What does this fold into?
Amino acid sequence: MLPEAVSQDANGYYSVAYTQVIPLLVEAIRELKAENDALKAAQATWQRTAADTQAQQRTLDARLRHLEALLDAKAAK
It folds into this structure.
């Protein structure tokens, strides 16, 4: 991935020039932050949709109970 950041000394030991890795890490963090921000926005949208759906469900449940009560009252006559 970053072979230029790795070197080998005369004894065969490898080392990493971490200063060359920092820009790659910073860019990776920026990409992760952008992805995280997008996911947070999507989550907020889903939460609003869920809240709207729940409100609609409560309205429909109330209407159904009202209609059932009217039918029960009519059937009792």
User: Anything to note?
Assistant: The helical segments are 18-76. The CA atoms of residues 9 and 47 lie 56 Å apart. The mean pLDDT is 96.
